[in-house]
């Protein structure tokens, strides 16, 4: 099945979506954390905490952080869950290089490691991880079904997947306020701070095109997961999905 978000790409290019997303994140890596926290006004830290807390009951010891970016979720996951090890994977070396520096500064290089991997075809053995986590990355997947099936494959039986993704509020007045925020504020701030003028136009378009709520839980179930649920935070600006192998 093809999804609308898979057709939303950063550049007018003949490259596939994965290559375009990699190029985009490499170009904004240096300023990504500043931009991200500025545009979310720091609320994203609370979203991550709430999502990660959903995994506490199962006490995962080996965690895969997919689309790890600069490692924010991995660092927060270590603080909250205290696992033996977290592997952060991403297609952007530029983003992960920033993450490696942050992890080293935090003294966690023996607990959190990074590898360049494409989640469409993971070079990871079956049944390797107790949990997989993704923050604001699944809408960038070149093939959502393929990516979810790969995540399922590398999870151990009973392992959990926790996804955080930006979503579009459905009710007044947040729906209207968010439209202005995403169409005006995000692209304007992105153009002012980032070297890549198109990256922060891509962001709201990819959020708008991505499936959410019940459609996403049904997609998780269709791809082999069980017990798929979702919650929304900040009046629908962020959605959390939890499912089990």
Automatic annotation (TrEMBL):
Function (record text): Methyltransferase required for the conversion of demethylmenaquinol (DMKH2) to menaquinol (MKH2).
Protein's GO biological process: menaquinone biosynthetic process; methylation
Q: Which residues bind S-adenosyl-L-methionine?
A: 70, 90, 118-119
Q: Does the keyword S-adenosyl-L-methionine apply?
A: yes
> What organism is listed for this UniProt entry?
Dysgonomonas mossii DSM 22836
HAMAP family associated with the record:
MenG_UbiE_methyltr
Similarity field = Belongs to the class I-like SAM-binding methyltransferase superfamily. MenG/UbiE family.
Specify the pathway.
Answer: Quinol/quinone metabolism; menaquinone biosynthesis; menaquinol from 1,4-dihydroxy-2-naphthoate: step 2/2
Per the record, the coiled-coil ranges are none
Q: Which domain of life is it from?
A: Bacteria
Catalysis performed (reactions): a 2-demethylmenaquinol + S-adenosyl-L-methionine = a menaquinol + S-adenosyl-L-homocysteine + H(+)
Q: What is its EC number?
A: 2.1.1.163
Q: Which UniProt keywords apply?
A: Menaquinone biosynthesis, Methyltransferase, S-adenosyl-L-methionine, Transferase
Cross-referenced NCBIfam families = MenG_MenH_UbiE, PRK00216.1-5
What name goes with this protein?
Demethylmenaquinone methyltransferase
Alphabetically, the GO molecular function entries are: demethylmenaquinone methyltransferase activity
The UniProt gene name for this protein comes to menG
Kindly give the SUPFAM superfamilies that the UniProt entry links to this protein.
Answer: S-adenosyl-L-methionine-dependent methyltransferases (SSF53335)
